[in-house]
Amino acid sequence: xxxxxxxxxxxxxxxxxxxxxxxxxxxxxxxxxxxxxxxxxxxxxxxxxxxxxxxxxxxxxxxxxxxxxxxxxxxxxxxxxxxxxxxxxxxxxxxxxxxxxxxxxxxxxxxxxxxxxxxxxxxxxxxxxxxxxxxxxxxxxxxxxxxxxxxxxxxxxxxxxxxxxxxxxxxxxxxxxxxxxxxxxxxxxx
Length: 190
Hints:
- This protein is of the alpha+beta class.
- About 40% of the residues lie in helices and about 15% in strands.
- It is built from seven helices and three strands.
- The protein has helices at about 15-25, 90, 95-110, 120-125, 135-150, 155-165, 175-190, and strands spanning about 30-40, 40-55, 65-70.
- A hairpin with a 2-residue loop joins strand 1 (about 30-40) and strand 2 (about 40-55).
- The longest helix is centred in the middle third of the chain and has 16 residues, at about 95-110.
- About 25% of the residues are buried.
């Protein structure tokens, strides 16, 4: 998948998407579930599921969004190479993952017409190596969990990844991995 440059004018902020949602659905709801990702008992990051409902009284969301934020061990660097001690992913990683998940859920509902990724996701993608990741298989497997479990999906998905042999922070990249995770999800709901 080719990388694309981030174009600030094409980005619709999460705040703008949330404002539009509340204007259109004042009785709606935006719910989030945040789970810690751990390796050998140590927190390595967070996974957040955001679910959006047009009416807060309904049990099933109209759209969901999923985001992951790794625990940083050093402050991200500014363009000049100095540490950025005020970067949100350094000072407030849980809020960053929640905002990203809400932004994705609202984008899935149609509240972002100019592009798909959140600003934080674009920043993280450009900071990583040049190994592109196709999230379609990972996202579709998570969608299966949401379909089966609703708001409880985030609670089951991360442990299912681990039981299927996928390390914390890694994505589902093969059909065999996706099948193994789906089987773990099915076993958790049996």
